[in-house]
Design brief:
Number of domains: 3
Oligomer: single chain
Number of helices: 10
CATH class of the largest domain: Alpha Beta
Largest sheet: 5 strands, parallel
Structural class: alpha/beta
Order of helices and strands: EHEHEHEHEHHEHHEEHEEHEE
Strand order of the largest sheet: 2-1-3-4-5
Number of strands: 12
Radius of gyration: 37 Å
CATH topology of the largest domain: Heat Shock Protein 90
């Protein structure tokens, strides 16, 4: 049962309000002055207050301001009752913290409806506060997870890069040994290749994390595309040779204004991905040319291809798709394709997949700088 506090110096008005509200099942507390009303509020905070504006000791506006300072007073709805029907009185009621404004003579039905509405809004406010608290707890939990993710990323980048670099340096040391057997030299070369792969995986993870936070910003410079493609194909030559796959390239556009590191790793990830899924004795082709105000990179293989319905999903993290008897889509275990999409989009470009018949073509378009 809701309790309604009625504060009015006119006995007739108090009794009218009592009768109308008690008929609707409300408990009514009466006060004939602002002082009595404040005392009643402190003894037992009501669910709603009906407050006359004009009273002899303290007016309703001042009484409302005092109520708002009491425990529970902020959320308790206050409805002003007044015979004054003018804008100034209405504005003063709002400034004092009133929730509603009724002019006398008040009809019992209207009084009950206004009280019901005020109580309904109060319940909604309580529910909204509860929802807010739930959202705040969820936000705090997400923030904690984000901080843990950032700490893990920092660990991977800092604590893994050093041993991977050490592996590469030791492999280089071995390769400088003139007496190294052919088998050992191949093994050392393979170690270097895998170390480079691990480094790319670590950097991809770092950049995916940066993109999640909106911090992946390209540092654009003039890139020599022929040199870049030659360096990438030479770097991946050992891997391709081991899988009996050829790498062929055709670079018609010599220059690109882009982030050297991001674009190079994009090309490396796409070519490595193509080599991994190209059948033996086939070629992976890399072509670069200008096309409608953009530089277009295309990396094609003759593998099993990628189903049409998976061509967007494949750029998501850790996606792996199987089709028929063969793995027809790339497993994104190293976040390579995810990184490619983020890096290309950071340049204002786009990445998509076409059919190579057989195989797949990964296409990248980066707009020319203006």
């Amino acid at each position: 049962m809701s309790t309604i506090l009625v504060v009015d110096d006119n006995e007739g008005n108090r009794e009218l309000a009592r009768a109308a509200l008690e008929d609707e099942g409300y408990r009514v507390v009466l006060a004939s002055s602002a002082a009595q009303g404040l005392a009643a509020f402190e003894r037992e905070p009501p669910d709603c207050v009906l407050l006359d504006v004009r009273m002899p000791d303290v007016d309703g506006f001042t009484a409302c301001e005092s109520i708002r300072k009491l425990p529970g007073g902020v959320e308790t709805p206050v409805l002003f009752l007044t015979a004054l029907r003018d804008v100034d009185t209405f504005d003063r009621a709002l400034r004092a913290g009133g929730d509603d404004f009724l002019t006398k003579p008040v009809r019992p039905t209207e009084l009950v409806i206004r009280v019901q509405s005020a109580l309904r809004l109060r319940r909604m406010s309580v529910e909204l506060r509860e929802h807010y608290e739930l959202l705040r707890r969820q936000r705090d939990a997400l923030l904690r997870l984000q901080l843990q993710k950032e700490r893990l990323t920092a660990f991977l980048v800092h604590d893994l890069k050093n041993p991977v670099n050490a592996m590469d340096l030791h492999a280089q040391f071995l390769l400088r040994d003139a007496g190294l057997t052919a088998t050992s030299r191949d093994s050392a070369t393979q170690i270097r290749s895998e170390a480079w792969h691990l480094t790319r995986m670590i950097l991809n993870l770092l950049d995916v994390s940066k993109a999640d936070e909106g911090l992946l910003a390209p540092q654009r410079t003039e890139i020599d595309l022929r040199r870049l493609v030659d360096e990438v194909t030479a770097e991946l030559g050992v891997m391709a040779q081991g899988l009996r796959v050829r790498i062929e390239s055709s670079v018609e556009t010599a220059r690109l204004h882009a982030d050297q590191d991001l674009f190079r790793r994009t090309v490396t990830n796409l070519v490595e991905n193509a080599i991994r899924y190209a059948p033996a004795e086939t070629a992976v082709t890399v072509t670069v040319k200008s096309h409608e105000g953009a530089t277009e990179l295309r990396v094609a293989d003759a593998g099993g291809g990628i189903p049409l319905e998976m061509r967007e999903k494949i750029f998501g993290a850790f996606v792996q798709v199987e089709g028929g008897e063969h793995l027809v889509a790339r497993d994104n275990r190293g976040l390579g394709l995810t990184f490619c999409k983020l890096a290309v989009e950071a340049h204002g470009g786009r990445i998509w997949i076409e059919d190579a018949l057989p195989g797949a073509v990964f296409c990248v378009s980066v707009p020319h700088a203006r």
